[in-house]
Amino acid sequence: MPYVAAPGADVDPSAAIGAGTWIWHLAQVREGVRIGERCTLGRGAYVGPGVRIGDACKIQNHALVYEPAVLEDGVFVGPAVVLTNDLRPRAVMPDLRPQTGDDWEAVGVHLRRGASVGARAVCVAPVTIGRWAMVAAGAVVTRDVPDFALVAGVPARRIGWVGRSGCRLVGTAPGRYRCPATGAEHEEVDGVLRELAGGGGPR
């Protein structure tokens, strides 16, 4: 089926939106946005100009996704999350002249396949959240997050590893971890976690 926009949603005519996507009340999708298939955009969410969102993503109520963010397939963005785009925000120039779009360069947040960002977390651009990583609710992410990492706090720091299921991995031997939900095995080498054969899907 084509995408569905609820009454009160504001979708720019230039946005490209995939089949089966639902856009709920009071959400705003700006010009040039590309949203894949089977996504959900919650009430009051905002997606800035030119943002790219893959398939099967879920962006919860009142999340703010500022350009030039990129969300790969299967990304979760929790309620009231903010993906920023200005490393040195100012309303004015040093001479108090109002700052315009030509006076700064937008930098983005990149959420890789399967990543999740919990409620009210803030990702301070430029930053990349790795594949299947999980950002805890209320965290402030100021540096890149590795694949499968579980990060929390202000500023966010890694406190463990998670699998594709979202469950925290359990150590089975030095540098070896297992997902308690799926049984998938993982190996950590030099701070990088990788799935071993049979990890449950495409890399």
Q: What proportion of the residues form beta strands (DSSP E)?
A: 25-35%
Query: Low-confidence parts lasting 5 or more residues at pLDDT below 50?
Result: none
Give the overall shape, derived from the CA principal axes. Answer: globular
CATH architecture type of the largest domain: 3 Solenoid
CATH topology name of the largest domain, in short, is UDP N-Acetylglucosamine Acyltransferase, domain 1
Rounded to the nearest angstrom, the distance between the terminal CA atoms is 29 Å
CA-based gyration radius: 18 Å
CATH superfamily of the largest domain: Hexapeptide repeat proteins
Mean pLDDT: 95
Strand order of the largest sheet: 1-4-7-10-13-16-19-21-22
Indicate how many domains the architecture comprises. 2
Give the H and E element order: EEEEEEEEEEEEEEEEEEEEEEEEEE
The count of strands amounts to: 26
Specify the helix fraction band: under 10%
* Total DSSP helices: 0
Quickly name the level 1 CATH class of the largest domain: Mainly Beta
Helix/strand structural class: mainly beta
Largest sheet: 9 strands, mixed
Structure description:
With 203 residues, the chain is mainly beta. The protein folds into 2 domains: 4-162, Hexapeptide repeat proteins (UDP N-Acetylglucosamine Acyltransferase, domain 1, 3 Solenoid); 163-203, no CATH class. 0% of the residues lie in helices and 33% in strands. The protein contains no helices and 26 strands. The strands form 4 sheets. A 9-stranded mixed sheet has the order 1-4-7-10-13-16-19-21-22, with no helix packed on it. A 7-stranded parallel sheet has the order 2-5-8-11-14-17-20, with no helix packed on it. A 6-stranded parallel sheet has the order 3-6-9-12-15-18, with no helix packed on it. The model has no long low-confidence stretch (mean pLDDT 95).
